[in-house]
Amino acid sequence: DCVLQSPPLIQGQNDWGVTYSSTEICALKGSTVEINCTYTYQSRKDGHDTEVNKTIWFTKLSEKQPVDLRTDSDYQDRVEYSCSEKSCSLRITDLRESDSAEYKFRIITNQPGGSYTGSPGVTLRITDLQVQVNTSSDTSWRELNCHSSCQLPDRSSYIWYKNGQKIQSQTSSFYSVPNNKEVSYSCAVKGTKSTKIYLNHNNAPKLPSVLVSPSAEIVEGSSVTLTCSSDANPAANYTWYKKNEDSPKGQEGIYHFSSISSEDRGSYSCKSENQYGEINSSSLFIDIQYAPRLPSVSVSPSAEIVEGSSVNLTCSSDANPAANYTWYKENEDSPKASGQIFTITDIRSEVFTTPV
């Protein structure tokens, strides 16, 4: 695997903090990755010593609560924590493209309200190997390149296979082969399961598959990754589109939202293309949950209101899921009614508000 090293990221307030060893990690599909952090917490509060009850890593929320990766079915039997006093590492094996996400660390203590999440977290990007074909003036030979969008270490050892059989003498990323359509080749990087088969003939991209991570509910402000992949030779180029928008949103196989907003809600698709053809994926709808916006209140009838008449008050707020409404009278603590519309059958001079 390959780490794109960024300066350590420290998130904290007062005596609470989480420091990640890097902010971005790029790794190969099928490999293993380790994400590390150190943390601090307030040792004593309100006369009571602080004890750490639990530490977790997570990418998703369920009912606004973090989902521990150890209980997340998408990571079953693939995650391992290694935690000691004020440090913790997360190990994920057999990486999948759907593992591309933002990973956060959370401390849970015995203190009231004594939980803390290091945010933003670490962005993990998973990519597969691709076999690129370099043509030459000699049409009887082709040079294959085992390529990754991750910047692999210079001393990475490559493994090549011919018709499924390992070629013992070949360990570099480049391999020259005769132009024989009856032979297939694949490559891997030592220490991973990631392979990409190259059939020694050209073809247009097949129907792309599109994945979203996390696959659970998506909350405004969270990190979201879309992944597009398609079998093609030579390797396909990708372009992302949002429905009803002409301009492309991205031009890589992976499209990342570092902090998704309600405006990003909609249907997305990707186009896969090479010189032999192009094809669009099916649409993927991204639904984003967000808190209610500032409510607006309208009154009906909007003309002159006569004391003793009937009046409807309507409260509206943009929210997903839809907001619940409660009506209050100014300077009174008890609610007057619930629901978006409040009807007053015998109106008197009063002021009403609607928290949502």
TrEMBL record:
List the source organism: Sparus aurata (Gilthead sea bream)
Q: Which InterPro entries match?
A: Ig-like_dom, Ig-like_dom_sf, Ig-like_fold, Ig_CD22, Ig_sub, Ig_sub2
Q: Which domain of life is it from?
A: Eukaryota
Role noted for this protein: Most highly expressed siglec (sialic acid-binding immunoglobulin-like lectin) on B-cells that plays a role in various aspects of B-cell biology including differentiation, antigen presentation, and trafficking to bone marrow. Binds to alpha 2,6-linked sialic acid residues of surface molecules such as CD22 itself, CD45 and IgM in a cis configuration. Can also bind to ligands on other cells as an adhesion molecule in a trans configuration.
Name of the protein described by the UniProt record: B-cell receptor CD22
PROSITE patterns per record: IG_LIKE (PS50835)
Q: Provide the Ig-like domain boundaries.
A: 120-198, 208-285, 295-356
The record lists the lineage as: Eukaryota, Metazoa, Chordata, Craniata, Vertebrata
Q: How does it assemble?
A: Predominantly monomer of isoform CD22-beta. Also found as heterodimer of isoform CD22-beta and a shorter isoform. Interacts with PTPN6/SHP-1, LYN, SYK, PIK3R1/PIK3R2 and PLCG1 upon phosphorylation. Interacts with GRB2, INPP5D and SHC1 upon phosphorylation. May form a complex with INPP5D/SHIP, GRB2 and SHC1.
